[in-house]
Structure formats: C-alpha cells, structure tokens
Write a structure and sequence with these properties.
heterodimer, A: 2 domains, 3 helices, about 0% strand, flat, B: alpha/beta, two-stranded parallel ribbon, 5 helices
Chain lengths: ~70, ~170
C-alpha cells in the first residue's frame, strides 16, 4: 500500500472519529469545558496521552514495519 | 425459564437421595448431561439468559486470543509475539483515560458516564483471534506475530482520546 493511500485512510478515520465524538457530545447537549482543567492537570494529561500513544504504537509496530 | 439450572438442581437432589440410599444414579453427573436437540424440555446450553439479565446486559467485549507457535528441528529461530494480556491492559487504560478526560471536563457526572459508555461501547466487538505458526527444519527464521484485532481496537480508542483532548487544547 502506498504511503499516500495510507494517509488518505488516516484522514477518513480521523473524520469519522471526530464526527462520532461531536455527535455524541451534541446529543447530550454537552460542551467540553477547557477552563475546568488547570494547567497542572493539562500537563499531566498531555504526558499520559503521549505515553498511551507510544504504547499503542509499539503494539502495532510490527504492522507498520511490514 | 425452567431451564438447565433447574434441571441441574433437581438432578443434584436426586443424586444426593440416591447416594443416601447407597445407589449411584448417574455416571455422567448432572452438569455433564449432554444437550439433546430433540428434547423440547431442554433449553440450549447457551440460552440461559433471563429477562433480568437482559436489562443490564451491555455490549460486552469478548476477546480471546489463541496463539500457538511450534518450532521443530530448527536453529536460529527468533520469535516475537504480542503479549495479549498487556494489550488488553492497554485497552483498559485507554478506556479509563477517556473516562477521566470526560469526567474532569463535564460538570454533570451522569452525562459524563453516559458519554464515556457510548464512546467506548461503539468500538466493542466480539473478537476471537487464532494464530498458528509452525516452523520445521529451518534455520535463520524470524517470526513476528501481532494480534491485529487488539491493535486496531487500541488504535481507535486512542483516536477517540486524542479527539477529546484536542477539544481541550491539551495537545
């Protein structure tokens, strides 16, 4: 599979996930409140997401290498 | 449903009575009675749900992974495989992270719970993964296996998490 095609797929997946999150939040009439999270928690969340990203990437690493 | 469970209870009681009388009723035992498709009084072994169970039955994720790698009469064989338990734990960590982000950014905790459940249950599916690899009379072989189902599930959960934190200006 060419790299371009892979990227195209990624865009579609991202859109689908984005829509899923949007519609779910809208259905409940909810908006995520940025101001509810202080800077310290934001930093911790950022670290946590980065770590999880690395873990997921290492899980599917073998697929990418192929 | 007067089902297998009821049958089993009655059967066990009968067995106890027979044992007290000094007889052995059945060699098979109550739990091992084979299901007979032609017997209308027997409910299917997989059909033992009750109405009460239906109410709280959420979409459950069934993940099973069966992997076997056999290496025979070979040398210099390198095997790398996915630790399924670690992968499942990662999936749970991702779900927990989604729940965390939603709970700290939505004031109404009931709504936060509902949204978490909706977002994570969307991707739950029945997954059974079977992989069998057989290496015989080989030299210098590298075997790398990945549980694709789990990897994809984790990927989708991560995307949901990233989509949520992006809305909070965290990334």
């Amino acid at each position: 599979m060419s790299k371009k095609k892979k990227n195209d797929h990624k865009e579609v997946y991202d859109k689908v996930i984005d829509m899923l999150v949007n519609t779910t939040l809208n259905r409940h009439g909810v908006k995520l409140d940025k101001n509810k999270i202080d800077q310290k928690n934001k930093e911790e969340l950022k670290k946590m997401v980065e770590e999880l990203k690395n873990n997921v990437n290492s899980l599917s690493k073998t697929e990418k290498e192929e | 449903m007067a089902s297998y469970d009821s049958y089993r209870k009655i059967c066990l009681l009968e067995q106890e009575l027979e044992a007290l009388r000094g007889n052995s009723k059945s060699e098979q035992g109550c739990g091992n009675k084979e299901w007979n498709a032609l017997d209308p009084t027997m409910s299917h072994p997989l059909d033992n749900e009750t109405v009460a169970q239906e109410a709280d039955q959420v979409i459950k994720s069934v993940q099973q992974s069966f992997e076997s790698i056999v290496v025979k009469d070979s040398s210099e064989v390198e095997v790398t495989t996915t630790d399924t338990q670690a992968a499942v734990n990662l999936q749970i960590a991702l779900q927990a992270a989604i729940a965390l982000v939603l709970s700290i950014s939505i004031a109404d905790s009931t709504k936060a719970d509902q949204i978490t459940q909706e977002l994570t249950s969307k991707i739950k599916s029945s997954q059974i993964n079977r992989q069998q690899t057989y290496v015989e009379n080989s030299r210098g072989v590298t075997v790398t296996t990945t549980d694709t189902d789990i990897a994809i599930n984790a990927q989708v959960l991560l995307q949901i998490l990233v989509a949520l934190v992006a809305r909070l200006d965290i990334l």
